[in-house]
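ok here's Sugar ABC transporter ATP-binding protein:
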Amino acid sequence: MTTQPLVDEEGREIAFSVEDVSMIFPGVRALSGVSLVGYPGEVLAICGANGAGKSTLAGVLAGQTKPSEGRVRIAGYDGEIESPSDAEDAGILLMHQEPLVIDTFTVQENVWLKQLSGSGSAKGWKRAKNDPAGARKALDAVGLSEVSLKQPASSLPPGLRQMLALSRTQVVPHRILLLDETTASTTEEHFQDVLQLVAAERAAGTSIIFVSHRMQEVFSMSDRIAVLRNGQLVGIKETAKTDHDEILTMMVGERVAAIEPPENAPGPEVEPIVVVEGLSAGSARDISFSIKPGEILGMYGLVGSGRSSIARSISGQQERYSGTVTINGRETTAKTPYQALDDGVVYVSEDRRKEGFLPDFDNRQNMTISTLGRYSKGGVLRLRYEREETDRLIAEYQVKGTGSTLTRTLSGGNQQKVCLAKWLEAEPDFVILDEPTKGIDIAARMNIYQIVRRLAEAGKAVLVVSSEAEEVTSLCHRILIARDGEIVAEMEPHTDTADDVIRASLGGKAA
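and the structure:
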């Protein structure tokens, strides 16, 4: 270790320096000559489309990947950052998009997870078992005051799992905090907890790197924004001196048009495809609504509102206690996703890595798994036909890679498009999309919105479950507000704003 400070060209103290870093994989230059610095007490956001190099740069900073060229320097650390242990020694704490949570451990044990590894594991286990007060304090700091220390982590939904991982910022010493798409699975209510956490870190002099696709969060949190495109640093802007349009244009190379709510809502004379009456499941109770052909219905709510219980119970993912669901006049009692598929219902999960695709399958296998009968004759799979159709799907859904590319190696946006292709090619009548653009960049998001709009134009009934108010007000014809297990309001995107939607979900009145 050394106490010699790092300074920039103007003599200001800096926390870290990325110096002419390039990262070359076989056949791909993921980063090309990237140089930037971060300052103590500052939030530097890193933005870019899928494939821009954001995660690669985060991996280099965290010591997960050694750069092909260039280096990373950390103030107060004399060595090279060539491994995760080097990064940890240098005071870098990485928070992933996919939270590092051990399902079989309790919540309390997960708080102390970093202390349970390495040479101090015995001491760490003792603390994990015998320091409930320390764990409680860490959880309170990230908005998890109501979560029991003793419950298994497996019982937590994705958003709370991410906040559990973030609680480690309270118990692991660090000087640089790297948030790599950490807010992708958090809801808007818990983002306020993230904001408070970041404010405390900034006040303590921590240098924070925030990698994100969510422009609203980038602008509410950051001091500067660095934009990557095709592995190169396009530019760095002071957040207060730029706007969404400029950053989006830097990200994709062209101006991104705003998404307006759809105009062509089905008329009152149109009979609904979907009718839900008195449904109760999970935390949801006595839910009733209908969806007409060509209609995109949004369902917005905070964690615990019951929104996902509604979606999952309709599609055979979760037990339904009571109520009826009819599709085209026929009641569906599906208890599994494939029974629901037979009734014309598909569900695209919010957790694509766990439920969306098979990690050991390639794109061809994942895209055709729900429609294998189409590619079989006499019980024999017609591989040539399957490959031809996969090539068509890859082009139609704009998926990067080929049919033989492992889906797990794709970016989040491309993985989501594989999941959509898998279910939509089954030609359902009713499509349920649970957090369809979670952790996806603006270009892929626009592509998925186009796919959803095409579904409606084809006469499908679509339910979009989302925790992003701007998403439902941009994409949907109508919006149902879920709160405390009930539908408490119906809103119209042409007259109600994203702020109105949020207020309604919290029990307030529109401004």
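+1. The domain at 6-98+170-252 is CATH 3.40.50.300 (Rossmann fold).
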